[in-house]
Amino acid sequence: MTATNQKTRTRNRLTSTIRQWFDADYGNGDLTAIRARPDRVELLRVLPFVILHLGCLGVFLCGWSWTSVGLAVAMYLIRMFAITGFYHRYFSHRTFSTSRGAQFCFALLGACAVQRGPLWWSYQHRHHHKHSDDPEDAHSPIVRGFWWSHIGWITSARNFPTDYSQVRDLAKYPELVFLNRFDTVVPILFASSLFTLGHFLGQWYPSLGVSSWQFLVWGFFISTTLLFHATSSINSLAHLLGNRRYATEDNSRNSLLLALITLGEGWHNNHHCHMNTARQGFYWWEIDISYYGLKVLSWTGLIWNLKPVPRAAYENTHRISGNPNLAPFHPRRP
Ligand SMILES: [Zn+2]
Ligand SMILES: [Zn+2]
Fold first, then answer.
1. Which ligand is nearest to the CA of 250?
2. Protein residues within 5 Å, CB atom, of ion ligand 1
3. Largest CA distance in the chain
4. pTM tops 0.85, yes or no
5. Which residues share a beta bridge with 254?
6. Is residue 19 part of a domain?
């Protein structure tokens, strides 16, 4: 390849990456060619994460107040619930039913978490369950190490497109496809709303000591950065640390600490073995806040048909070994 050709190719890739920030489906027609690219960190795709983390430093300029800290905590909890309860347990695994209107609201809430659109998230997650900890897995800490599974994989061009053929059950809803395609619209509106709210609260209630910048830094940047790392810890740490109740073919683990910070996702070994249940903590002591939230939503009639933990989940525990927490992991050969 000549130097001119190489330059043109690099320029096309840069243009396409930038355009994909505004239209995630741009240039994603040939999935085979995209998958043939080397799986590596792409610097331009790292930029949004750098901005997200740098935004947290704004705290040194705008300071803090109890209201803004409370806002950060609330935005973390609400959006973590949207990711675990809706993006994961509803869109990816269909573990309960709801109406089309509520489904759209769930997708909107999930999109506020800045973890891309519901179809991309579900496609990547279903792919993870199919290939957990084998060489095809996009984010296995066993195959590619901690940092790749935690953040590197998201910056690889190979993992950027949504394979709509793998989420046909969701792709039949044009409103979901729209949110998925223009996946920066909701986060921008969300951040702008916080900024505006902070401005007016600062004007109307000066005793709160808040400002537009403080709301943006605490409610968006700090809260979203923590949310990102907590969610990513399920891809990375939940395949490295904790106990194994079930001898699944991957290295998934159960961890109380991860379950607490992710509202229930830390019971990852339970989930890998029985992924089609709305509940991930199988015993009363396995705290699963997202499940409690879903149960409350089911009492309101907003959602229904929560899939229960299968009887086999309790029987298999005893069948594996005398010590169910130490079932062995046998890595699959590439
Ligand atoms: Zn996993
Ligand atoms: Zn899952």
1. 1
2. 252
3. 66
4. yes
5. 243, 267
6. no
Three-state secondary structure of 17-47: HHHHCCCCCCCCCCHHHHHCCCCCCCHHHHH
Residue that the structure tokens 């409370």 belong to: 70
147 CA to centre of ligand 1 in angstroms = 15
Domain that holds residue 96: 64-182+227-320
59 inside domain: no
Q: How far is the CA of 303 from the centre of ligand 2 (A)?
A: 19
- Number of structural domains (the chain) is 1
Distance 137 CA to ligand 1 centre (A): 10
CA of 158 to the centre of ligand 1 (A): 19
Question: Do residues 238 and 132 lie in contact, with contact meaning Cβ atoms separated by under 8 Å?
Answer: no
Whose atoms come closest to the Cα of 134: which ligand? 1
Ligand in nearest proximity to the CA of 275: 2
Q: Which ligand is nearest to the CA of 124?
A: 2
Residue 325 tokens, joined: 């927490």
Q: What is the residue-level pLDDT of the chain in tens, covering all 334 positions?
A: 566 777 777 777 788 888 888 888 888 878 888 888 888 998 889 999 999 999 999 999 999 999 999 999 999 999 999 999 999 999 999 999 999 999 999 999 999 999 999 999 999 999 999 999 999 999 999 999 999 999 999 999 999 999 999 999 999 999 999 999 999 999 999 999 999 999 999 999 999 999 999 999 999 999 999 999 999 999 999 999 999 999 999 999 999 999 999 999 999 999 999 999 999 999 999 999 999 999 999 999 999 999 999 998 988 664 444 344 444 454 454 4
25 and 181 in contact (C-beta within 8 Å)?
A: yes
Residue 33 domain-assigned?
no
Rounded to a whole number of angstroms, the CA Rg of the chain reads: 21
CA of 84 to the centre of ligand 2 (A): 9
- From the CA of 128, which ligand is nearest? 1
Give me ligand 2 centre to Cα 114, in Å: 19
